[in-house]
Amino acid sequence: MSNDLLTYPVNEYFLSVQGEGANCGKLSLFLRFGRCNLDCSFCDTKYALKEFQYFSLSKIRNILKKQSTKADLLIITGGEPLLYDLSEVIRIAKQLKYSIAVETNGTLFQDWLKKTDWVTVSPKREGNIKKEVLKLAGELKFVIERKRDFKFVEQFMPFERTYLVPVDNNIEQADMIVRYLKKSKYRSFLKIGIQMQKVYHFK
Q1: pTM assigned to the model
Q2: Concatenated DSSP letters for 72-125?
Q3: Which helix (H) or strand (E) holds 42?
Q4: Which 3 state secondary structure label does DSSP give 190?
Q5: pLDDT tens-digit readout, 126-178
Q6: At what angle do helices 57-67 and 87-95 cross, to 10 degrees?
Q7: Which of 34, 74, 98, 158 could form a disulfide linkage to 11, CB 3.0–4.6 angstroms apart?
Q8: 18 within 8 A of 47, measured Cβ to Cβ
């Protein structure tokens, strides 16, 4: 198939500040792909599962080129972007000098992931994490709802950069995380995370 005929299910793209993880605070171009292979109850982007339009590679190229003077970091997210072969998107982004970060649940693997600069893996109980993805992870992000989630986190320890994020910045869950950190033998690997975009209400 000619590259000009390639299409991708895109939910949205926008320029904003990354609100989570190691890149928190960085102005970024977000490119959100539709659909996901999981259906998590706490997902805050469920709208991306069914709401998307098919963008041609040419259209994505034009978007990346136009925004390349405004942001240095491209964040590829979803949904679940590893459902798709994005190798051509990655190639174009690299040509435009973007640093590329990917947000994934870690249950799928594509070779193009090796060509990105930063991988955030957010493990879920509903899926099995691919070892190939975990090896590329720069950080792990766990959404914490209840105490039993800490046992799940510990299955991945030790991992140098791990964020424990209370659902929707919930104060009670944040307090629960702090209490856990005080007694955890893995505390040197763990940080409480925040979703800054939900504090300042920016997109």
Answers
A1: 0.94
A2: SEEEEESS-GGGS--HHHHHHHHHTT-EEEEEE-SS---GGGGGSSEEEE---T
A3: none
A4: strand
A5: 889 999 999 999 999 999 999 999 999 999 999 999 999 998 888 999 999 99
A6: 30
A7: 34
A8: no
Domain boundaries, the chain: 3-200
**The pLDDT of residue 117 is above 70:** yes
Distance from C-alpha of 135 to C-alpha of 81, rounded to nearest angstrom: 18
163 token code pair? 């964020």
The whole-angstrom separation of Cα 123 and Cα 160 is: 15
Question: Does residue 103 contact residue 120 with C-beta atoms inside 8 Å?
Answer: yes
User: How many CA atoms does the CB half-sphere of 80 hold within 13 Å?
Assistant: 20
Tell me which amino acid residue 70 is: K
Residue 60, CA distances (Å) to 68, 69, 94, 146, 158 in order: 12, 15, 13, 39, 38
SS3 32: strand
For the segment(s) 3-200, the CATH number from 3.40.980.10, 3.20.20.70, 3.50.4.10, 3.40.50.2300 is: 3.20.20.70
